[in-house]
Amino acid sequence: MSYESKNLSVLAYANGFTLWHYTSGDTAAQVAGSGYFNEAADMLRVGDIIVANVDTDGSPAAGLFLINANSAGTVDAANMTEVGGSDAG
Predict the structure, then answer these.
(1) pTM for the structure as a whole
(2) In the 3-class helix/strand/coil scheme, how is 55-84 assigned residue by residue?
(3) Strand 49-54 relative to strand 74-77: parallel, antiparallel, unpaired?
(4) What are the tens digits of pLDDT across the range 33-55?
(5) If you ran DSSP here, which 8-state letter would residue 33 be given?
(6) Residue 36's closest CA among 69, 76, 64, 71?
(7) Residue 15, Cα to own-chain centre: how many angstroms?
(8) How many whole angstroms separate alpha carbon 86 and alpha carbon 89?
(9) Are the beta carbons of 27 and 52 closer than 8 angstroms?
(10) Where are the domains of the chain?
(11) Are 66 and 75 in contact (CB under 8 A)?
């Protein structure tokens, strides 16, 4: 799969920072890959955070991606920091 613009939405915006939500059937590693969000380069800024639901059609996971680079139309997100990773019962 690849980036789908319809699955990226703004949750909050303040002081030049945007908190986004994104959902995808892609894995966290795919989403974190350099260039995955290139189509959204005009909207995403370094320091923005994306709350994400990934691998929704496989082994669902959720977490946070930090946009750590956006230069010349190439966007890079840091590896996902997972939330809710384990359940004791």
Answers:
(1) 0.92
(2) CCCCCCEEEEEEEEEEECCEEEECCCEEEC
(3) unpaired
(4) 999 999 999 999 999 999 999 99
(5) S
(6) 76
(7) 20
(8) 9
(9) no
(10) 5-83
(11) no
